Amino acid sequence: MGDAPDQAAAKTATPRAPVTIERPVPTKLDFDRPYMARALEAVDAEHPEGTPGYNNDGYTVLQLHVHYFDRNNDGIIYPWETYAGLRRVGFNVILSFISALLINLALSYATLPYWIPNPLFPIYVSKIHKAKHGSDTGVYDTEGRFVPNKFEELWTKFPKTHQNKLTFKELMGMTAALRVALDPFGWIANKFEWSLTYLLAKDEDGLVSKEKVRGVFDGSLFYQVEIARTNKAFSERQGKLKK
Ligand code: HEM
Ligand SMILES: [Ca+2]
């Protein structure tokens, strides 16, 4: 009955669980040790060295994701720093204010190096791995590394209409698919993270590319967006001066 054991052992899908057919996993990845979680660089098939020219400064990929928000570089992210960072990447006053409150309220306590809650809701970059929640992609491991294989899985499982790009619907389908049982905190947090990602990373056609998402994971996209916005503002000001 069924496959010979050696063939069966290599199967990645079965009709008895149609979801394994609908959401296929990568079967071949042509870069160095995709299974090996990387501390410093968000490595994928197209970027086996990570993000060139982006100084990781010895921070884990998850630390890099939040380090952008620690402008004064003291290792602590206060709500007003989160707010300022969200504004810099282009979110409006209302969304930035609500998001900053939610992020710091939800994540602060888990990252504190002491037991007493801090009413200023600081987030400690050194302990950011403790703020991981359920129903996520698993691309960050529990220590805050980046797992290339898990990242690649997103791009075989969830895009249905464009290669290596997700529509809004597909992205929301992904957050629904990532839900694990009895984890309302994780469900909401994940939906929130991927909604912000959509707003930040979508192109003119409303698609979110693999490369932009990789940039969200290692935080490099935040810097890119800020630089692009500053240049635009600068050239607009110059345009005004010329008139
Ligand atoms: C524009 C702003 C932001 C965007 C677009 C964003 C997006 C994301 C995304 C897509 C993930 C991966 C979720 C998954 O694996 O399913 C994530 C994870 C995470 N983010 Fe953000 N984020 C932003 C700001 C922040 C800020 C300000 C903080 C804290 C200071 C933060 C802390 C985290 C943490 C701790 C995780 C790990 C959660 C987990 O995987 O369980 N993020 N974020
Ligand atoms: Ca700070």
TrEMBL record:
The keyword Transmembrane applies. Signal peptide: none annotated. SUPFAM superfamilies: EF-hand. The keyword Membrane applies. Keywords: Membrane, Transmembrane, Transmembrane helix. InterPro entries: Caleosin-related, EF-hand-dom_pair. The chain crosses the membrane at residues 93-116. Pfam families: Caleosin (PF05042). Belongs to the caleosin family. This is Caleosin. It comes from Riccia sorocarpa.
